[in-house]
Each structure stands twice: as C-alpha cells, then as structure tokens.
Amino acid sequence: MAKLAAGILLYRRGRAHLAILLVHPGGPLWASKDEAAWSVPKGEPEPGEELLVAAEREFAEETGTAVPPGARLGLGEVRQASGKRVHVWAVEGDLDASACKSNTCMIEWPRGSGRSIEIPEIDRAAWFPLAVARHKLVLAQSVLPDRLAAALGEDEGETAASG
After folding, report:
1. How far apart are CA 119 and CA 107, in angstroms?
2. For residue 159, what pLDDT band results from cuts at 50, 70 and 90?
3. How far apart are CA 4 and CA 54, in angstroms?
4. Distance CA 19, CA 73 (A)
5. Facing residues of 69 across strands?
6. Which of 78, 113, 121, 143 is deepest in the core (most CB within 10 A)?
7. Which pTM was predicted?
8. Max Cα distance, the chain (Å)
C-alpha cells in the first residue's frame, strides 16, 4: 500500500503576481540540487490522524510557524515517483521565509554505511512566483501552481508572465 503524506501550500498575493512558499529538503543528498528539488511543507500522518491536521502539524514542524488562520482550499492529491500520495491544501498567508526553522531527523549517511547523522528536514524556504515554482517543485508537485491558479480564478497569463 502506498504511503500517504499531507501538505500545506502557503500563498500570498503580490502587486504583480501570486507567490507560493516552497521548502528545500535538508541533508547532503539535496545540498547541490535546486531545479525540481523543492516541495510544499508536508509529511506523513500519525496513525488515526486526519490528513488536514497532519498537513498543519507538518507545516509547523518544517517551518517553525503555525499555519495562518483562514480557508483551507483543497488542491487534491499528487502521486510522487515513490508512489507516495500527497494531499495538499492551499492557505493564504505570509511569513518571513528566511526565519523558517525546521525540526531535525536522523538519516543514514552515506547510504549503506551504517552511520547516522542528524539533518534539518528542510534547509531553507523561499517564495516563488507560480511560473518559477513550476520548475523548482519536484515533478509530481509541479502541477500545484496551476491547480492553485485555477482554484483562485487567476489569469494564467498574468501569473506566468511575472516569473
């Protein structure tokens, strides 16, 4: 059975365009990757935990900030290359991406070595216009900017031209 994850896509309306907050995975495997490496803050639910509750908890763990109040707009599910199904909600809000502080986790590094190192789940966060975000996001999540624009009734030409 495929694993599940849930995430929050935070967005803000700028003068010229919509922008979304993305996070970059921490650790040595991702250190030199940028294009098709970013993600929405997300993670796996605890046993019995509702997906939206898990998405909000994971957002707080990965950014150090609670999800802002307001409507939760379902953007559906994406299936990542690993088979993991990620359910995503969009929320309008703002935060200082440079102030994001992630929790940490243990990984085996180098792989197969038997040694463990502690890494931050994310090493940075940044705001991107939708057109840029499409290229920054991991492939399975690259549809999310379009889903957000459609859900908000945004003119795709306006959001694409601003990136």
Report:
1. 7
2. very low
3. 10
4. 16
5. none
6. 78
7. 0.90
8. 51
